[in-house]
Amino acid sequence: MPETPYFVSYPEALEILESQPLPLPTEVVSLDEGFNRILSKDLESKVDDPRFDNSSMDGFAFRYEDSLQPQTHLAIIQTVQAGTNQISKPIEKGQAARIMTGAPIPDGADAILPIECCKVDEKNSTVLLLEQGKKHFIRKQGENLSKGQVALSKGAHLNPSSIGLCATMGYPEIPVFQQATIGILSTGDELQLPGTKLKESEIFESNSFGLASLVKWSGHKAKRYDSVVDSLAELRIKLDKAAEECDMILTSGGVSMGEWDLVRKIMEDEGDIKFWRVKIRPGSPPLFGYWKGKPLFGLPGNPASSHVVFRMLVIPYLRASTGGGGIQERRIRVMLAESVKSDENFLVLRRIKVDTSGDQLLAYSTGHQGSGNLNSLVLADALTLLEPGHSGEKGTWCNAILL
Ligand code: AMP
Ligand code: MG
């Protein structure tokens, strides 16, 4: 039997994860259900956008040449509204049409003047143009998109503007990847739900809530279980239940070297581990493998670590499972405004606040970087990507990923 990869580098961990993505089927959902979903096909526009030349202003449409010597009087021959079915009369020399935003441009007209640059006589029969006409107030057919053009590609994570664009392109329904149902199981005798009266040695359980939010944010479905005590028998029951009910499992806690790190132990004895421990800080303990055929990430118990490991390992795995789609990594290049602790062998992911006020992006630590300190993550804009061997000294540059 091949040995389990142990203490892998970050690129090695990614390679293992990306080589065995979760097979996610596709489905069609209504546009109302599309927000935060991941497209499973390229979407071609069904129409030109704009569909026809139209006015971007409420005002008057006329022949540009007629406006070259303001102030000029033109005869108002019609009113054109958005959505009108009437065929408008062509605009001849010396004529103008009152026009509303979004209304089609009558033949012959090639310039617009907004209403505030015009004066209409009392009889509503002539308009005085106070300035030259503006050609750029005509939105040209197809200037945004032409029919057949792919505007949203497979893998696009649908945000509010892309949902609007789906509608603009004429899609009442959209093809998307099915959401993975991801079970979340915290482990630890000391954990109690927030709101419970705590005994001396107990703490509020936070990871399952944070991880469930990360799952939803990444476009999938979270199934949060109550935490399980440190008992192999209990853990086995809960893991079996999660494997039955979910497509994939996240555990938190119990993956380090300790006597009570039972997730690691049970996965070693009864699961199928693909790697254990990764050279990243914080968050070196995680494991990835299968429990009863379902992918399982054993995330660290320390809250900041479990969050960071989700960002660094689970997100790329989900991305691989949706054809490269979903949450994308957004990298920036920052200068360290103060020294941070780096490491010879580990990729170091410090929580940083980025000062964007100057010519260069300056990175400041968000304070105590303990792996249990969630507050330092809340304060952070980004995580450094301090490569192994980086000095971490003030004034040096490094990549960072935006949170
Ligand atoms: P473990 O990995 O189980 O050794 O846990 C590491 C640290 O994280 C310990 O201080 C735990 O009390 C804490 N911890 C583990 N799980 C959670 C959780 N779900 N919520 C909050 N803290 C946790
Ligand atoms: Mg524990």
**Structural class of the secondary elements?**
alpha/beta
Strand order of the largest sheet: 1-19-21-22-18-14-17
Content of β-strand: 25-35%
Biggest sheet: strands, sense, closure? 7 strands, mixed
The dominant shape is elongated
Care to describe what's here?
With 403 residues, the chain is of the alpha/beta class. 19% of the residues lie in helices and 29% in strands. It has helices at 10-18, 160-168, 207-217, 232-245, 262-270, 303-321, 374-378; strands at 6-8, 26-30, 43-44, 54-55, 59-62, 72-80, 95-99, 111-114, 118-120, 126-129, 138-139, 150-152, 173-177, 181-186, 191-192, 203-204, 221-224, 248-252, 272-278, 280-281, 287-291, 294-299, 331-336, 347-348, 351-355, 362-365, 382-385, 397-402. β9 (118-120) and β10 (126-129) form a beta hairpin. α1 (10-18) packs across α6 and α3 (207-217) packs parallel to α6. The mean pLDDT is 96. The site of magnesium ion (MG) has 6 residues, from loops.
In short:
With 403 residues, the protein is α/β, with parallel strands linked by helices. It is built from seven helices and 28 strands.
Q: Characteristics of this structure?
A:
403 residues; binds magnesium ion; 7 helices; 6-stranded mixed β-sheet; binds adenosine monophosphate; alpha/beta; 7-stranded mixed β-sheet
